[in-house]
């Protein structure tokens, strides 16, 4: 029995195998792990949310408030414990034109409508479509995200004081070395504290979090967008809302699948889908720019810090707000070098290095490698995960169809007397494999009776029935009699229902 969808504080075991909130609260060890993980994520979220606000063309508070409401809400309604949802670049890119052309109120209305779309898509079973995403696309998704995380750090490493580089190197060294000594405290948190102390005590002038943008000084408040409730407003925001809903769901569900693999647990993808919608609706009504799951912060939470429950997600949102509102002056002095070091290590940990080893590439079919590379190239080139994953899936479909199109075989197996010949058809018969079926028979030299044996084949669609009708018509036009035998029950039902009723050219 899974925990209540309306509250994280359920003591019943979850189907994912993750610790329940009650178990975490009763265990000082688990609570410390979840709390420190949430703190590290909150610190890493601050510059990210500010950056994404700039991409969307809105005030930094809009992104920071979105990260707070998304994280807190998804902790209650999400289907994947320990996954972090907040303001993201993918969503920022989609909604930026709305903010630029129509203003903040239309942006908020777009976020709310996108949330409604996600709820509807989730309840309609859209999450089940994840099964059609091949493993090679998933590997490409992970690798491209790792590359994007690393590329996002370049602005903080170019045209900066030379002192930034040894600070980043020190941060990376701490994050790499400390877990080999102790795991009592998350290494990223130690790196952030050490580098902050170093820069403050030495008074070196390096970029800080405060340089990224102004931090809010008050709590978010309930906000109803001031837009006309008419069809014109719907015409403006609906296309962007639908795009945001699809992009957000795709990134969230694939991130959930990645966390499932990392933690060897399972999660409720349908609940995660509609939960993302609820989180975006809540975020919109609190003046946020919306968001979805974040791969980088999720990897910090799960893989680096060892969090496994909803507590870390909830605390990440709460601590984010506490830090920026209550301790804004302190947070502002954190050097960006510390957060760059954290994100570079997250990038390295996220990348699937095994997928590019020469031994792996030699064993892997070329089509699989092509799909993975296509996904990576398109995502990195467009900075759009939906386009990249779509390109990867499309490439996989084309290569699969090309491969299976030649798997159907027609064998001349037997001659029964002088007037009967048997052809055996083997393989899965559908539009990609049955198109050239008509070319694999000898219509000129055939005897009077022709038997087509489909015992080792399966008819999947109308294209195959039409192809069999065409074969039969070609033989009969030359005076031959044709019998189709060996159809299994499902194939026979489809053939009987459609044969002779498809018309010429179908």
TrEMBL record:
Keyword tags: Membrane, Transmembrane, Transmembrane helix
Entries under InterPro entries matching the protein: Membrane-Transporter-like, SLC26A/SulP_dom, STAS_dom, STAS_dom_sf
Primary subcellular site in the record, as a coarse category: membrane
Ranges of biased composition (kind: Low complexity): 1-20
GO cellular component: membrane
Domain STAS: 422-498
CDD domains on file: STAS_SulP_like_sulfate_transporter
Keyword Magnesium: no
Region feature (Disordered): 1-21
Topology in the lipid bilayer: Multi-pass membrane protein
PROSITE patterns from the UniProt entry: STAS
Protein name: SulP family sulfate permease
């Amino acid at each position: 029995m899974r925990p209540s969808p309306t509250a994280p504080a359920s003591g019943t075991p979850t189907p994912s195998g993750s610790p329940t909130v009650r178990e975490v609260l009763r265990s000082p060890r688990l609570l410390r792990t979840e709390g420190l993980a949430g703190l590290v994520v909150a610190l890493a979220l601050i510059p990210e949310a500010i950056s994404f606000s700039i991409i969307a063309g809105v005030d930094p508070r809009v992104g920071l408030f979105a990260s707070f409401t998304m994280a807190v809400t998804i902790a209650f309604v999400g289907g994947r414990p320990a996954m972090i949802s907040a303001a993201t670049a993918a969503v920022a890119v989609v909604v930026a034109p709305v903010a630029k052309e129509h203003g903040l109120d239309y942006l908020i209305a777009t976020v709310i409508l996108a949330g409604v779309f996600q709820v509807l898509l989730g309840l309609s079973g859209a999450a089940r479509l994840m099964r059609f995403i091949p493993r090679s696309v998933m590997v490409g998704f992970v690798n491209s995200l790792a590359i994007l995380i690393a590329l996002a750090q370049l602005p903080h490493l170019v045209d900066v004081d030379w002192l930034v580089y040894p600070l980043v190197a020190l941060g990376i060294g701490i994050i790499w070395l400390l877990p080999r000594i102790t795991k009592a405290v998350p290494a990223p948190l130690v790196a952030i504290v050490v580098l902050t102390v170093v820069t403050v005590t030495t008074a070196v002038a390096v970029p800080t979090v405060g340089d990224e943008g102004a931090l809010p000084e008050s709590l978010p408040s309930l906000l109803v967008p001031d837009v006309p409730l008419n069809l014109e407003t719907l015409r403006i925001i609906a296309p962007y809302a639908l795009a945001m809903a699809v992009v957000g769901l795709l990134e969230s569900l694939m991130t959930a699948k990645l966390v499932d693999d990392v933690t060897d647990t399972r999660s409720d993808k349908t609940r995660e889908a509609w939960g993302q919608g609820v989180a975006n609706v809540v975020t919109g009504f609190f003046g946020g720019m919306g968001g979805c799951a974040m791969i980088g912060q999720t990897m910090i939470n799960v893989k680096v810090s060892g969090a496994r429950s909803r507590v870390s997600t909830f605390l990440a949102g709460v601590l984010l707000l506490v830090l920026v509102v209550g301790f804004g002056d302190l947070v502002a002095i954190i050097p960006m070098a510390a957060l760059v070091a954290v994100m570079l290590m997250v990038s390295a940990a996220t990348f699937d290095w095994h997928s590019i080893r020469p031994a792996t590439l030699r064993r892997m079919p070329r089509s699989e490698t092509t799909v993975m590379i296509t996904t990576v190239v398109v995502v990195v080139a467009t900075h759009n995960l939906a386009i990249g994953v779509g390109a990867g899936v499309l490439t996989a479909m084309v290569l699969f169809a090309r491969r299976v199109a030649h798997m159907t075989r027609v064998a001349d197996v037997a001659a029964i007397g002088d007037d009967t010949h048997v052809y055996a058809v083997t393989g899965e018969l559908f539009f990609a494999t049955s198109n050239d079926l008509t070319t694999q028979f000898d219509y000129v030299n055939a005897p009077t009776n022709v038997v087509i044996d489909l015992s080792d084949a399966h008819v999947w669609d109308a294209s195959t029935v039409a192809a069999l009708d065409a074969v039969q018509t070609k033989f009969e036009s030359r005076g031959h009699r044709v019998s189709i035998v060996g159809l299994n029950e499902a194939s026979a039902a489809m053939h009987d229902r459609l044969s002779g009723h498809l018309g010429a050219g179908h």
